[in-house]
Structure formats: structure tokens, C-alpha cells
Design goal:
23 helices, EC 2.4.1.11, six-stranded parallel β-sheet, alpha/beta, nine-stranded mixed β-sheet
């Protein structure tokens, strides 16, 4: 589902459409990944959301290649006959040779064509192909590594597909874009067989980097010191590492998703990326002004209902002055920064208490872990809340009936007689039912490994047990959110919209879709300068904090200093007034254009241009641009009211359904947004593409690329 933004602010200046003049009729694009129509991780989101833009650019000459997984095909793919006659002959020939290759449309936005290869059907060729891999590349794949075995099968089959396609020379120019090491072997084989194919390899996270960070090493300060072969061998992933490194070196163009990952790849894979291709999202605009603010209020009300039930009997704080923070993602306690977040929450709790703050912070941890069922006490809380609601409705109906009858006879009601003894009895029973002897639970589920769970052990150490004296409460939801859940019936997108701040202090995060999704939905977030998203925002925004993007320094500071900085961010956010939070959300949402594939897709376009120029130099010419002549563009500090409590002027946001205001002044959001747009400096003009060499020399002034050849 595409995320949405409001028309209350129009597209940022400087993001005009790029006038494309390159003739794609003589070229075909194959994009190859293990996660095509097969959700495993974040690469699925990248390919799925980018498909619409790429399909619009390439039309009938764009094909995604992935594995055939029957359970996924049933719900995601419409199998059809190949529409391209050359591809149809290729698929028919492979099927006649003992393969199973399927063709269809992926039922996502853009409806791209997909070629799905059944790797299990050709498992009989595994030993032969592994022997060939050893003879060609000296890479041996152990029999017990099923994932690597699948990569071998998938690689040989994709190389077979591209080889058959090239035999017909129609169209004459083929671009093959491979994602991650699981698809990388196909690229290596294409280059070894000298197929006339322009190849691109994108690594979304290096294998060795992920393993090293999971082992709690000082990763970024020792990047240049690692003995990569030894480290990969010690972790029994040397064969995988070799496949990844071979693909990176064989590709015409090597790309990564962020600058921080580019530095990592340069040291671990021993090749500097040619292009950085940031990940984007499909941003769908709302038709109503301030609608995203209203959606925030609606979702926040649903979270408040859950909180009322979860904290029944201990609801001694004001929900109107309650802030919802959250962290979400894979359960990697250190890599995702959950350890730092918990420590910062303990310090924030101390600051709020000593400053006698009336703000209460509820921090949600949405990280899937091993459980066996919902916590009985948590379910009981929601049942008690519902019972109280039903009791209130019953008393209200009885009260309303008596009031109606009194007014019918023309008399003012006697308030002392409106509620009888039975009404008081019902209400007293309801109040007694809310009494609770234990503290509200930390975890919403029964954990299978409660005693060794990292989050729960850290909570025990810092002593945040949801007591009445604590100003910071913790709720650990070890399961992905779902609208069908009996506990918290909300989808992830709806939950994010209802929160006030996303906290993602990751130590290892090649890109970071979670803070990007927050930005598109107008929710401020905390990221780090070790995440791709954080580095991207630091590069493009002069003052990210003013736009609700807090960048935590985890690269040049120690753990304790980083924790203090995170605590400071959280404490300053708690000091903001409601009006200031509304202004900040408006600003955050304004950045959604920057994360739209309409803009970020241009980096992928440039990578394909560069690959064509390298693979077919007689037809296409690449002329690198002098990087010193351009400086890129950065969004300056907003011209509108700053969010800092100390610098706030006397003006209030325009009234909306989102949140009631305590002040009477009005804030003209459209006027303030226009000030910000005027204040944004126009960037350099985007380059254009030409045709063939005999018609016009292709000159790509890739001034916006970070990495040169």
C-alpha cells in the first residue's frame, strides 16, 4: 500500500521532472533478485515499490527475474503467456531442456512482468554446477548450506536465461541488474561467458558487515584493519563472501544503497561503489488539506484505548499529556539500538522525575520474538476496559432517558434523582473490577525464553517496571502488528501514524526504511549517522532537527556520549508544546518528496546509463563530470516558526481535527510552507540523455552522483 502525504504542501522546488530523451526501444532490462515476488526482507520492499517507476520508464522491455515459490505465486502473481516473442522462445527452450520457468504479471503497483524460475526442479544439476563453479572461480560451496546451494542453482539458471535471450540479438542491448549475493553468481557467469550484457550489482548490506556487527565488534573504527578472508572463514561464510565479492568486482557498475555502506563495501569487498542508489517509497498525495494530521489524531486515539486497558488500575497519568515513542524492526538487540534506547529511557525517566514534569512517555518495542501466546494479564486489561465502556454506556442510556422524560413535561431535571441506587451500584462494581494488585505488564506475550531475553533482562537491570512513580513506561510487543490482533488491532502504518516519535538508534543499518516511513507520514524520528537514511538526510538538509529528523552521532562518540545525546533529544522533545509538535510534523511531512521514487529513481537510471556506456562503448559514451563544479543542494533551516521551546514565537498552528489547541492564535500552514519553499535554493539542472552515438554523443554530466568511476 503506498504511503500518503498531504496536498497542504506541494512538491519541493528543485525536484522537477527530468526530461528523458533516451530511446529504450533497442534495450531490455532484466532485474534479478531472490526477493522478486518472494518476501524475505527489506529488498522485497525496494523492488516492489520501485517497480512502478521502472515499468513506466521501460514499458514492455522490463522484466523481473526471481525464484518460483508456489505459495507466493498463488497470491501475488497472475501467470500468463510471454508477450515478448524472443523471451517466449527462450522460456520454451529452457522448459524443453528440463527447467521450469514461468511468466506472469506481479500484482503490485505498475504490474511488471516477472520471470520465475523453479530452482528446486533443477536440483539434479546442483553437483555438476558446483563442480563447474569450482573449476571456473575456485569457490567451493558446502553441501549443508542450503541457501548457498539455492544461490548456485539460481545463478546458473539466470545466466542460462540471459544467454538464450542474447542469441537472438533482439533487442540488441541487454541490461541485467543483480541484487545481493544470492543473485550475484548469475552476473559472474555472464562476464565469464562474455555475454554482451551490461551488468549492475547492488549490495543492500554486506554479508561480512552484518555478521561482524552482530558479534559486538568495534566495526566502523576497525574497517581498514579486518582480515576479511579470516573473518569470513571464522564465521563459516567464506563461500558466500566470495560470491558477493566476485559479483562486486565483475559488475560493470557496482552500487550500494547509502554512503555509509559504500565505505563499508570499499573495505570489505575491496571495490569502491560507482553509484550510491538510495532507497525510496511511493508517496501518494492526499486530496484534503491537513488530512495526515487528522489521521494522526485518529490513530493516536486507538493507541490510547489500548493504553487505557493495559494500564487499568494504574492509570494515574493524563493521556492528553502522554507521548508515544516506538522502535520497530528485526530483533537485533544491539544492531538496531534497542540497548541504547532502553538506557536512554532510564535516564529520561530520571530527568522527568527530578524536573517534576507532567509528561508521561510510553515506549513501544515492536520486535518479533519467540512466544507461545498472549499474556493473560494483558488480555484481561482489554476486557476490563471494554466492560467499563459498556457500563458507562448503560448508565448514560438510563440517564438520557430520564432527562428526556423530564424535559418532555417542561421541567428542569432534579440532578439528585437522575441517578438512582441501581446506577450507583453498577458503577461501584465497575470501579472495583479495575482494582489491580500487580504492576501493568512489560511484555504483552508469554516469552518462550523470558530469562534470557535481551530486552526483558535490560528492563530488569534499569528498573523500569511501569510503576506509578515512573514517568516512562515500557510496552514490549514481540510480534508484528496486525489489524486482526485481539490485543492491538492496528496495522503497522496506522500505528506509526498514531505515535509521536520513532526512535531508531541503530549501530548497523545500511539504509533504514522505518525512519523513512515515519518521514513520509509526517512523524519525527531519531536516526544515526551510521544508518543510510541518517547520512542521506545529513547530506541533503542543512538542519535536520528543524525538520523533525534527529541524527544521533554513533560514529564519532562513545556509547555513553551517544546515550546522553539520545537522552537529550528525548527530553527536548518532551518539553515541546502541542502546537510545536504540530508545526514539526508539518515540516517533517514536507520532506516526503525527497524520499519519493520519482526523485530517488534517477540514481538507478544513472547506474543503468553508466553500465550501458561501459558495456557498449562503441554505441554509448560516458563523460564523467568534474565533481568540483557542483555542490549539490541542501535544504536550509525552515523560515517558519522554529520548534524549539526557547525560540518559539507567539503563533499557533491552524486549527484542525488533529489536536485541540490551548491558544487562540492561528498559524497559516500554507503561508509558512511557501516561505520554506522560497528559502530552498534551486539545485543544479538534471542531466539529459541522448540517443545513439551516430545521432548524438551521449554526455551524462552525473553531477549528483557521489561516487565517480
Amino acid at each position: 500500500m503506498p504511503l500518503a502525504r498531504s496536498l497542504s504542501v506541494t512538491s519541493l522546488s528543485g525536484l522537477e521532472e527530468w526530461d528523458e530523451e533516451f530511446d529504450l526501444e533497442d534495450a531490455v532490462l532484466f532485474e534479478i533478485a531472490w526477493e522478486v515476488a518472494n518476501k524475505v526482507g527489506g529488498i522485497y520492499t525496494v523492488i516492489q515499490t520501485k517497480a512502478r517507476l521502472t515499468a513506466e520508464e521501460w514499458g514492455e522491455n522490463y522484466f523481473l527475474v526471481g525464484p518460483y515459490v508456489e505459495s507466493n505465486v498463488r497470491t501475488q502473481v497472475e501467470l500468463i503467456e510471454p508477450t515478448n516473442p524472443v523471451l517466449k522462445r527462450t522460456i520454451d527452450k529452457m522448459n524443453a531442456s528440463g527447467c521450469k520457468v514461468y511468466f506472469g504479471r506481479w500484482l503490485i503497483e505498475g504490474s511488471p512482468y516477472v520471470v520465475l524460475i523453479d530452482v528446486a526442479f533443477t536440483a539434479w544439476s546442483l553437483d555438476r554446477w558446483k563442480s563447474e563453479l569450482w573449476e571456473l572461480c575456485d569457490i567451493g560451496v558446502p553441501w549443508f548450506d542450503r541457501e548457498a546451494n539455492d544461490a548456485v542453482l539460481f545463478g546458473f539458471l539466470t545466466a542460462w536465461l540471459l544467454g538464450e535471450q542474447n542469441k537472438y540479438k533482439t533487442p540488441p542491448y541487454v541490461v541485467a541488474h543483480f541484487h545481493e549475493w544470492l543473485a550475484g553468481l548469475g552476473l559472474v557467469l555472464c562476464r565469464h561467458r562474455q555475454l554482451p550484457v551490461a551488468t549492475i550489482f547492488t549490495t543492500h548490506a554486506t554479508l561480512l558487515g552484518r555478521y561482524l556487527c552482530a558479534g559486538n565488534v568495534d566495526f566502523y573504527n576497525n574497517l581498514a584493519e579486518f582480515n576479511v578472508d579470516k573473518e569470513a572463514g571464522d564465521r563459516q561464510i567464506y563461500h558466500r563472501y566470495c560470491l558477493e565479492r566476485a559479483a562486486a568486482h565483475c559488475a560493470h557498475v557496482f552500487t550500494t544503497v547509502s554512503q555509509i555502506t559504500a565505505i563499508e563495501a570499499e573495505h570489505l569487498l575491496k571495490r569502491k561503489p560507482d553509484v550510491v542508489t538510495p532507497n525510496g517509497l511511493n508517496v501518494k498525495k492526499f486530496s484534503a488539506v491537513h488530512e495526515f494530521q487528522n489521521l494522526h489524531a485518529q490513530s493516536k486515539n486507538r493507541i490510547q484505548e489500548f493504553v487505557r486497558g493495559h494500564f487499568y488500575g494504574h492509570l494515574d497519568f493524563n493521556l492528553d499529556k502522554c507521548l508515544f515513542l516506538f522502535i520497530a524492526g528485526r530483533y537485533e538487540f544491539s544492531n538496531k539500538g534497542a540497548d541504547l534506547f532502553l538506557e536512554a529511557l532510564a535516564r529520561l525517566n530520571y530527568l522527568l522525575r527530578v524536573n517534576h514534569s507532567d509528561v508521561t512517555v510510553i515506549a513501544f518495542f515492536i520486535m518479533p520474538a519467540r512466544t507461545n501466546n498472549f499474556n493473560v494479564e494483558t488480555l484481561k486489561g482489554q476486557a476490563v476496559r471494554k466492560q467499563l465502556w459498556d457500563t458507562a454506556q448503560t448508565v448514560k442510556e438510563r440517564f438520557g432517558k430520564k432527562l428526556y422524560e423530564s424535559l418532555l413535561v417542561g421541567q428542569l431535571p432534579d440532578v439528585s434523582k437522575m441517578l438512582d441506587k441501581e446506577d450507583f451500584t453498577i458503577m461501584k462494581r465497575a470501579i472495583f473490577a479495575t482494582q489491580r494488585q500487580c504492576q501493568p505488564p512489560i511484555c504483552t506475550h508469554n516469552m518462550l525464553e523470558d530469562s534470557s531475553d535481551p530486552i526483558l533482562n535490560c528492563v530488569r537491570r534499569i528498573g523500569l517496571f511501569n510503576s506509578s512513580a515512573d514517568r516512562v513506561k515500557i510496552i514490549f510487543h514481540p510480534e508484528f502488528l496486525s489489524s486482526t490482533s485481539p490485543l492491538l488491532p492496528m496495522d503497522y502504518e496506522e500505528f506509526v501514524r498514531g505515535c509521536h516519535l520513532g526512535v531508531f538508534p541503530s549501530y548497523y543499518e545500511p539504509w533504514g526504511y522505518t525512519p523513512a516511513e515515519c518521514t513520509v507520514m509526517g512523524i519525527p524520528s531519531i536516526s544515526t549517522n551510521l544508518s543510510g537514511f541518517g547520512c542521506f538526510m545529513e547530506e541533503h538538509i542543512a538542519d535536520p532537527t528543524a525538520y523533525g529528523i534527529y541524527i544521533l552521532d554513533r560514529r564519532f562518540r562513545g556509547v555513553d556520549e551517544s546515550c546522553n545525546q539520545l537522552t537529550s533529544f528525548l527530553f527536548q522533545f518532551c518539553k515541546q508544546s502541542r502546537r510545536q509538535r504540530i508545526i514539526q510534523r508539518n515540516r517533517t511531512e514536507r520532506l516526503s518528496d525527497l524520499l519519493d521514487w520519482r526523485y530517488l529513481g534517477r540514481y538507478y537510471i544513472s547506474a543503468r546509463h553508466m553500465a550501458l556506456a561501459k558495456a557498449f562503448p562503441d554505441t554509448y559514451l560516458y563523460e564523467p563530470h568534474d565533481p568540483t563544479s557542483t555542490t549539490g543542494f541542501r535544504y536550509p533551516r525552515p523560515a517558519s516558526v522554529p520548534p524549539s521551546p526557547a525560540l518559539s514565537r507567539h503563533s499557533s498552528p491552524r486549527h484542525s481535527e488533529a489536536e485541540d489547541n490551548d491558544e487562540d492564535e492561528r498559524y497559516d500552514e500554507d503561508l509558512e510552507a511557501e516561505k520554506d519553499r522560497v528559502n530552498i535554493r534551486q539545485p543544479y539542472s538534471m542531466p539529459k540523455r541522448g540517443g545513439k552515438k551516430q545521432d548524438c554523443v551521449l554526455r551524462w554530466h552525473l553531477c549528483f552522483l557521489r561516487w565517480q568511476i
